[in-house]
Structures are given as structure tokens and as C-alpha cells.
Amino acid sequence: MPVDDDLILDAAVDELRDYGLKRTSVDNVARRAGLSRATVYRRFESKNVLVQAALVRESARFFGEIVAAIGPLPTAEERLVEGFVVGLRKVRTDALLTRLLVSDPEELVPYLTLRGAGVIAAASEFLVSQYAEVGGTMTRDPHVLAEMLVRLAISFTLTPDGSIAVADDDAVRDFARGYLVPLMS
Amino acid sequence: MPVDDDLILDAAVDELRDYGLKRTSVDNVARRAGLSRATVYRRFESKNVLVQAALVRESARFFGEIVAAIGPLPTAEERLVEGFVVGLRKVRTDALLTRLLVSDPEELVPYLTLRGAGVIAAASEFLVSQYAEVGGTMTRDPHVLAEMLVRLAISFTLTPDGSIAVADDDAVRDFARGYLVPLMS
Q1: Do the Cβ atoms of B113 and A162 come within 8 Å?
Q2: What residues make up the domain containing B78?
């Protein structure tokens, strides 16, 4: 029977949430998934690759939850604004992310920066697909705008202090309305 | 005679450029500046604080060079576009930054993310003061737009791979024209 990557990634996420980044190993993930070390290594060649795949999948799940939250909104503009608001709120409350930002900040950050291209691309593609679904027809490139949003969201997550009060939903909403929506044309 | 902070910060920048982040210490900076350890600690309470102050000053110098490069341009819009192009080009060629990104990436990144609020604020204030100097009159908040630019520039520096080809001046110029200039109104 072929091994399901999701089984491995579920175990990786559980290990990360319970033990943090430094103490998660391919061995422990394999044990939790009930698989041999060799089987896991065949699918994910290193801890870095495995953690990155887990974070890419978690970011897709994360965006899935945002999309569910904004589903009832009729226009692409309203969906972008509320998606940005809900997204930054979720970042502040997500169990895995807050765990890792507290326990392993200097381990987590490279996965969102130096090795962050995968997470950025996955999140951006997700936004673009959602935009296509509501029939968006902006003349700008939605991939570029989506990537801007994701890069800003990561920046606000890692460095919340600044001119925009990211812990205040109304301030985030005003920012999205004033500085992101005008680019959707 | 009061100790000049610049003397200490110059020594800190030289140490960082020559030895990288991990091997720079308050002791070595004091020795290079010809000061006692206690004198340096009186001005900068820890290595973290000293390195952060050195990076804040370097980012101000960095933006000063950009401003010199775009000085001849008449409009705020052209200055923003070329400033963004020159800025990302300088990031790729700056001796200290490229040294640290190669030798100490996982040490440098926290200074631009988790502990990045000082660098972001300094760089943003610099952009705003330059904008005020050319008599800019946008209705949006120039502090917010400046911070967006700085956050995006840091993101492109730490994660260059994506939809926008940041190593290509023309692609950066098109991005700035299409996605940043429209917010200057």
C-alpha cells in the first residue's frame, strides 16, 4: 500500500505542536505515524524538507479556514478585506504558529523568510484560485497582488510593531480598504 | 569628553563586516574603538542592542545613498519608483548585508523580523521625510505607505524567489509603477 503523505504530515504537525521545532525529528515523526524511518525519508529527504512540507500544508489549511469565514461575502473586494482581517487574527491565535513563535522563534523564522518561497507561493496560489472562483477580472496580475498580500501578512506576523495596529481588527480593515483594495482594478 | 556613539557604531559595523554576527562581541567592538568595555556597555546595554543600533544606522545610511541616487528626479512618483529599484539593487550588493546573509543568515534574519521594528521605523521615517521634502501631498498616510514599502523590500531581500523578479531592475520598476505608485494619491 502506498504511504499517504498526509499521514506523515499530520504526525509532523502534531510533533511540532507538542514539542516545538528543535525537538521534532524525522525519527519521532515516523514513530508517531507508525512508519519506519526509511519510509519517511523516502518521501521527505530531510527534516528541513519535511517541516517545510508540513508548513506549506498548514498554510493551505489556514487559508482554507479564511475562505470558509469569508464565503458569504459577495464581492472580491469585501473578501479581500475580511480575508486579511481574519487572516491576521488567526495568525495571532493559531495553536501551531503561536507555539513556534514562542518556543522556537529563531528556528521558525527562516521557514517564513530564507526558506519561505514555498509557503509564499502556496498561499499566493490559494488566494489567486479563490479570486478566480468569484470571477474576479482585475487588469493587474492577481499573482503579484496575492504575493504582496502574503508578504505583508508574513511581515506583520513576524514584526507586529509599526504604524498599522495589526492587533486591532478595525485598523487592519482600514489598511486593507485603503491600501490593498485600490490595487484590485 | 563625552563618548561619540558614532565611534562605537563605526567599530561595530567594521567588526560585523570583518567577522560576521556570531563572532562580533561588545569586547571586540570596544577594543576596535579604543574604549573600555564598561564605556561601551554604558551606551549599549547588550550585544543585541548594539547590533540593532548599528543596523538602524546602516539602514539610514543605506537610504541616504538611495536618496542621493534619485535626487535629480523631479516627481515623488519617479523618486519612489527609482528608489525602490535602486534600493533592491543595493540590497543585492551591500558589503555588510551580503556578508551577513551569507555567513550568518539565521542570526541576521531576527534583526530584520522579530527584532525588526527599529529598522522598519527608521527606514519608514526616512522615506516620509524625503517625501515631505519634495512637497508630496497624498491623501493617504505617507507613514503607512512608507512602512508597506519597507516591509516589502525586507521581504524581497529575505525571500527573493516569487512572482516578481527582484534581481531584474525592469521587473522591479514595473512592480513599483503598477502596485505602489497608484497608492500615492
Answers
A1: no
A2: 52-183
Residue B178 contacts A where some CB pair is shorter than 8 Å: yes
The confidence band for A1, taking pLDDT boundaries of 50, 70 and 90, is: low
* Angle separating helix axes B117-133 and B76-93, nearest 10 degrees: 140
Q: Which CATH number is A119's domain given? A: 1.10.357
**Backbone torsions φ then ψ of B100, nearest 5 degrees:** -75, -35
CB contact (8 A) between residue A117 and residue B183 = no
Return the pLDDT at B93. Answer: 85
Query: What's the pLDDT at B1?
Result: 54
Query: Cβ of B162 and A109 within 8 Å?
Result: no
Using a CB–CB cutoff of 8 Å, tell me whether A170 touches chain B. no
Q: Which of A111, A137, A4 is nearest to A53 (CA)?
A: A111
Residue to test with chain B: of A108, A114, A120, most B Cβ within 10 A: A114
Ranges in chain B, pLDDT < 50: none
Torsion from C-alpha of B124, A88, A144, B100, nearest 10 degrees: 50
- Number of domains observed in the structure of chain B: 1
Binding-face residues of B in 66-125 toward A, CB within 8 A: 105-106, 109-110, 112-114, 116-117, 120-121, 124
Residue B158 lies in a domain: yes
Taking CB atoms and an 8 Å limit, are A151 and B158 in contact across chains? no
The verdict on residue B63 lying in a domain is yes
What residue type is assigned to position B133 of the chain? E
Contacts of A183 in chain B (CB under 8 A): 179, 182-183
**Does residue A10 surpass a pLDDT of 90?**
yes
Q: How many CA atoms lie within 13 A of A168 on its CB side?
A: 9
Collect all residues of chain B within an 8 Å Cβ-Cβ radius of residue A159: 113-114, 116-117, 120, 151
In a domain, A118, yes or no: yes
Average pLDDT, chain A: 91
**Has residue A23 been placed in a domain?**
no
